[in-house]
């Protein structure tokens, strides 16, 4: 896409936090972009840096012990160095976020309707009655029954799934240009999950909004994403289009994620597939490739840090951080006739 269609640019984002045990390098040199009308999915295990990346763009994890480096520009406006007052004007109207835990994101002592109305009126010159009408419409769109009545309820009177729908309604209330959805369908049943995904897809089609979908659910990714960035240990280890990541994955960690999906068109396995070991400690990550201690294909060169680069000239938009040759990757990723990660031999060091 041309630069005129570029909505968000993130370049070499680094986020670290000083703790009593040392410095946690939560995000380590992450770069990506989002164009208008595009859905970028950021996937990976818990602790890979996905949520910290989204919170940093919103300026919600600023604290005396946090350090930010790099650049993040929304329509040319720098976000990382913006003042708190500038970010308050941007949040909600231009960039919004669906939080993973609605119980801690919603104000427990304010009615749901008051919270949605407050956000709408902070960005648009509407009367309270007009804002309430829009709130009812939004609640109905995300599947809340008796929406007009439930606006008078408090967060604790909703189930977890209903609170998640309220968070989605709030995020959509001002039709933001960039929506960061952090596990937006985690607490929802599959029927409502499909409905929410349709709403997100409709939002980006109607308003040409960009969407960053933070998730570990590759089924959700397959439904809506245009491009995928796979994060591990604070870094993006592979990035490409939906088809490239699903049909020609180049990083062993991505193979493990794809191989961990249970197939409904196959006989149930005796043991569910999983990636051996645990994600690395970001206080003292392993040298070189962060996935090295869990990778069955580790070799001598893996102690050197691989950069996120194009490895196959035939796929100029497909990048990964793995020293294996492309031909070897395509051979090694096939396990029992499917894409997956072979078992790690010997002891796995977490």
TrEMBL record:
Membrane topology note: Peripheral membrane protein
Keyword Membrane in annotation: yes
Keyword entries, A-Z: ATP-binding, Cell membrane, Membrane, Nucleotide-binding, Transport
Keyword Membrane: yes
PROSITE patterns, per database record: ABC_TRANSPORTER_1 (PS00211), ABC_TRANSPORTER_2 (PS50893)
GO molecular function: ATP binding; ATP hydrolysis activity
GO cellular component term of the entry, any: plasma membrane
Domain ABC transporter: from-to ranges: 8-258
InterPro entries, alphabetized: AAA+_ATPase (IPR003593), ABC_Ni/Peptide_Import (IPR050388), ABC_transporter-like_ATP-bd (IPR003439), ABC_transporter-like_CS (IPR017871), Oligopep_ABC_C (IPR013563), P-loop_NTPase (IPR027417)
Entry's Gene Ontology BP terms: peptide transport
Gene3D superfamilies, per database record: P-loop containing nucleotide triphosphate hydrolases
Similarity section: Belongs to the ABC transporter superfamily.
Protein name per UniProt: Peptide/nickel transport system ATP-binding protein/oligopeptide transport system ATP-binding protein
Originating species: Conexibacter arvalis
